[in-house]
Design a protein that fits this description.
Rossmann fold, alpha/beta
Length: 207
């Protein structure tokens, strides 16, 4: 495709739908349903894992900033240790984000640009917290369910206790904050089939 010609008459990338939701909300299930329809999903968590895997682009900077104790035996980031460290120290968290976020932004932009589907799902947990990411979205879709259901789902799949899951929820944007920025809301308080029906309807609208 002639990019210059396309730029003259259309945006330089497909329409971007920002997909977000708290832990245990069902955001991944919604993203998978959009992918079922042939829609490109750019998953910022997956990009982060690639960047911090053995040989990942972020490893040299992480090693320089945090030292070898945060790198595992295979040469990748020890995610459990890093999670504990940044959870306890906002300064450390800011340092980690300063390394990872620009790299994630570059890679996600490249994948959006390369997408051939009619629109792109940008799957990003921290959409509420980041004005930078919100500006890159044409619409924002929030996957929502009651916090008690989030806690139950995360406990069931992770083995974490209620207090640990509640601490994770407390560190994320609130349900009210997410709903306040939503253009579209997927109610995932019922069955997977109900979630699929809502995604299917949104897919037709986004087309």
């Amino acid at each position: 495709m002639n990019t210059n010609a396309a730029n003259a008459s259309s945006p330089p990338h497909p329409h971007v739908i920002g997909l977000t939701g708290g832990i245990g909300s069902g955001k991944s299930a919604a993203a998978a349903r959009f992918a079922h329809h042939g829609i490109a999903v750019v998953d910022t968590d997956a990009i982060s894992r690639e960047l911090t895997a053995p040989g990942g682009k972020a490893i040299p900077a992480l090693l320089a900033a945090f030292g070898p104790t945060l790198i595992d035996a295979k040469g990748g980031l020890d995610r459990a240790r890093m999670r504990a460290r940044v959870f306890a120290d906002p300064g450390e968290r800011a340092c980690l984000e300063a390394i990872l976020h620009p790299l994630i932004a570059l890679e996600s932009a490249a994948r959006i640009q390369a997408a051939s589907s009619p629109y792109v799902i940008l799957d990003i947990p921290l959409l509420v917290e980041s004005e930078h990411w919100r500006k890159r979205c044409d619409r924002i879709c929030v996957v929502d369910c009651p916090p008690a259901l989030q806690i139950a789902r995360v406990m069931a799949r992770s083995g974490l206790g209620a207090a640990e899951v509640e601490a994770i929820l407390a560190a994320q944007a609130s349900r009210e904050q997410r709903l306040a920025i939503a253009d579209d809301v997927i109610d995932n308080s019922a069955t997977l089939a109900a979630l699929h029906r809502q995604v299917d309807a949104l897919h037709m609208r986004y087309l």
